[in-house]
């Protein structure tokens, strides 16, 4: 029997190999990522604080796009066979100024031991065909008819996926068949694209065209994890790879790394065949796939995330004010970058150490009794800050395993061929995690609850080991 986590690891490896063969620049990205990770691991003895180098080297996340709840449920079944559950709700429709008419979730392992074995994630987006800001009633009907006619996942694959989920793995022969079919389901199809139909959707949204303008799905991007994303960004440019304009997410600073920083190389022109209105088949190119890379930091609590969101909003305000001043001076003066604006805000508004991040309840950590704690009959303090400050507890950060809607939308937008169209005077179709769960056909897990449960369990064990009864009674971890 090949257990679930080995199926997941094998699928991630095979998907990475397939994508590298289809998008050669992704192979360059893997090479540079490996070089940077090795260098950081050699010079920094604490490089594995947010995941050991073996885990980081194997780590990937993919991104796929589907068109309907039926397709989303089928994708969920394939990922369930790999021990990956839907976590988080992301509405990208309002996270960018360009037209990105999708809502998303991330399929990933949720148990710490499964994440340690292989933390593969797939950010999965579904087209919102009923959203009148993008699609009128006539186009919605034609689009949904087109989507209902196609089959993304063959019945044999879904049957094997159901068995793998039920039995927590597969025997070698069906496992091999499952992996072959699963990887093939996400390959780029050679079938000709209906040029007129694709163009009609692309005028509204390049993302909509990529989802609903073809008869299959494919990996949109694949993402390794790097330990120094700023070095990688410069080194990829030195290799002649065109990167997007900036690194998405928090700025680089000298305090704790939190949440997620991402960047990518720009989508490349890829040769495709097209079916013309007269029935002839011609050749051309589309730009839809790219290679992304990420640097992961500490998971933030709801309070910490609110602080982060407020800093992002203030950064936006200051950037807009700087742009207005430049415009008033008719372009005189240098360009102010997001990093330039965000860094001082971050330094003023966020704790400069992991200990303060933990003590203020802004980040998630696992706790353990200190190896050499004070004795002499002292009683442990009843507050987390005191327990950390006086050496009773040690705190180890919990890695952020999820995504940022704005960063995801920023990556999508940076790789689009056009802004698309949106009728902002209309009301968007309401979506939340409950409606998404109905579409998936499975509960969508709250990432904050996952992190909090891991933190609280470790803290309770640590306090019980210390005999810190007062702390157990008084502490109410976030």
UniProtKB/TrEMBL annotation:
Protein keywords: Dioxygenase, Iron, Oxidoreductase
Gene Ontology MF term list: dioxygenase activity
InterPro entries given in the database record: HGLS, YdcJ_bac-like
Pfam family, one: HGLS
EC number: 1.13.11.93
Entry cofactors: Fe(2+)
Enzyme class: oxidoreductase
Coiled-coil stretches: none
Family: Belongs to the 2-oxoadipate dioxygenase/decarboxylase family.
Annotated PANTHER family: 2-OXOADIPATE DIOXYGENASE_DECARBOXYLASE, PTHR39479
Protein name as catalogued: 2-oxoadipate dioxygenase/decarboxylase
Lineage: Bacteria, Bacillati, Actinomycetota, Actinomycetes, Kitasatosporales
């Amino acid at each position: 029997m090949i257990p679930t986590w080995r199926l997941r690891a094998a699928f991630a490896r095979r998907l990475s190999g397939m994508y590298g063969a289809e998008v050669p620049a992704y192979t360059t990205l893997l090479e540079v990522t490996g070089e940077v990770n090795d260098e950081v691991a050699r010079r920094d003895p604490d490089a594995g604080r947010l995941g050991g180098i073996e885990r980081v080297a194997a780590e990937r996340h993919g991104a796929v796009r589907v068109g309907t709840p039926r397709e989303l449920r089928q994708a969920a079944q394939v990922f369930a066979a790999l021990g990956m559950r839907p976590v988080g709700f992301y509405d990208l429709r309002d996270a960018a100024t360009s037209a990105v008419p999708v809502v998303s979730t991330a399929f990933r392992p949720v148990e710490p031991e499964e994440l340690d074995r292989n933390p593969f994630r797939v950010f999965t987006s579904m087209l919102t065909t009923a959203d009148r800001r993008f699609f009128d009633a006539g186009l919605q009907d034609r689009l949904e008819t087109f989507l209902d006619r196609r089959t993304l996942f063959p019945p044999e694959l879904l049957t094997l996926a159901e068995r793998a989920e039920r039995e927590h793995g597969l025997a070698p022969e069906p496992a091999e068949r499952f992996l072959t079919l699963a990887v093939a389901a996400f390959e780029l199809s050679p079938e000709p694209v209906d040029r007129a139909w694709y163009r009609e959707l692309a005028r509204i949204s390049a993302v909509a065209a990529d989802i609903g303008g073809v008869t299959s799905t494919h990996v949109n991007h694949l993402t390794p994890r790097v330990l120094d994303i700023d070095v990688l960004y410069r080194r990829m440019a030195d290799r002649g790879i065109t990167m997007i304009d900036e690194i998405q997410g928090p700025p680089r600073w000298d305090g704790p790394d939190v949440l997620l920083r991402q960047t990518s190389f720009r989508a490349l022109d890829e040769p495709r065949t097209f079916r013309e209105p007269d029935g002839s088949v011609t050749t051309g190119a589309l730009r839809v796939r790219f290679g992304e890379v990420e640097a992961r930091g500490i998971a933030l609590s709801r309070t910490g995330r609110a602080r982060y969101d407020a800093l992002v909003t203030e950064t936006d305000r200051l950037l807009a004010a700087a742009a207005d001043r430049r415009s008033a001076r008719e372009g005189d003066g240098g360009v102010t970058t997001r990093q330039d604006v965000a860094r001082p805000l971050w330094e003023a508004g966020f704790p400069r150490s992991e200990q303060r991040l933990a003590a203020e309840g802004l980040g998630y950590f696992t706790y353990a009794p200190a190896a050499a704690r004070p004795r002499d009959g002292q009683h442990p303090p009843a507050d987390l800050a005191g327990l950390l400050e006086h050496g009773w507890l040690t705190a180890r950060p919990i890695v952020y395993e999820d995504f940022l809607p704005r960063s995801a939308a920023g990556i999508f937008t940076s790789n689009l061929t056009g802004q698309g169209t949106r009728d902002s005077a209309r009301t968007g179709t309401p979506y939340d995690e409950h409606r998404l769960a109905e579409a998936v056909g499975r509960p969508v897990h709250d990432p904050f609850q996952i992190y909090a449960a891991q933190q609280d369990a470790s803290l309770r064990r640590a306090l019980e080991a210390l005999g810190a009864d007062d702390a157990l009674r008084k502490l109410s971890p976030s």
